[in-house]
Amino acid sequence: MPPIEPFYIALGRLLSQARAKAGLTQEQLGARLQPPMTRASIANMETGKQRVLAKTLVELAEALDVDLTNLIPRRPPRRAVKPADLRSELQSALDLPADKVKELAKQLESIARKTA
């Protein structure tokens, strides 16, 4: 499995938050898109595993009744992040089981080492 890019993790977190605020399930959100997307596709976008086409991002914003800019991650400040902090932030932001967070953290650490 290729590593998950931090941009898509951040986008997924924003998408998940907007969906929750709108009171929609992943299935309901997927049904509002054209063509409709499965619950699994929405889940994969929310965890950063699936890239999002620009057209789909616009449709998601419309379906969630939010401004498109609310779904686009801002560039995070460049700072060193300790692995334990990263795991904790991922777990709280994505509301995932600890084993999935650990897997994501390892992938992000690998990316950080390659770009350092």
Tell me what the structure shows.
This protein has 116 residues and is mainly alpha-helical. The chain folds into two domains: 6-71, lambda repressor-like DNA-binding domains (434 Repressor (Amino-terminal Domain)); 83-115, no CATH class. Helices cover 62% and strands 0% of the residues. The chain is built from six helices and no strands. The chain has helices at 6-22, 26-31, 39-46, 54-64, 83-94, 98-115. Helix 5 crosses helix 6 (98-115). The protein is elongated. The two termini are 22 Å apart. 21% of the residues are buried. The model has no long low-confidence stretch (mean pLDDT 84).
At CATH level 3, the topology of the largest domain is 434 Repressor (Amino-terminal Domain)
The helicity comes to 55-70%
Number of domains: 2
If you average the pLDDT, what whole number results? 84
What structural class do you assign from the helix and strand content?
mainly alpha
Strand % is under 5%
Query: Could you tell me the radius of gyration in angstroms?
Result: 14 Å
Shape call: elongated
Order of helices and strands: HHHHHH
Poorly predicted runs are none
Give a quick summary of the entry.
With about 120 residues, this protein is mainly alpha-helical. The chain is built from six helices and no strands. The longest helix has 18 residues, at about 100-115.
Provide the descriptors you would attach to this structure in a database record.
434 Repressor (Amino-terminal Domain), elongated, 116 residues, 6 helices
Question: Secondary structure elements and their pairing?
Answer:
Elements: H1 6-22, H2 26-31, H3 39-46, H4 54-64, H5 83-94, H6 98-115
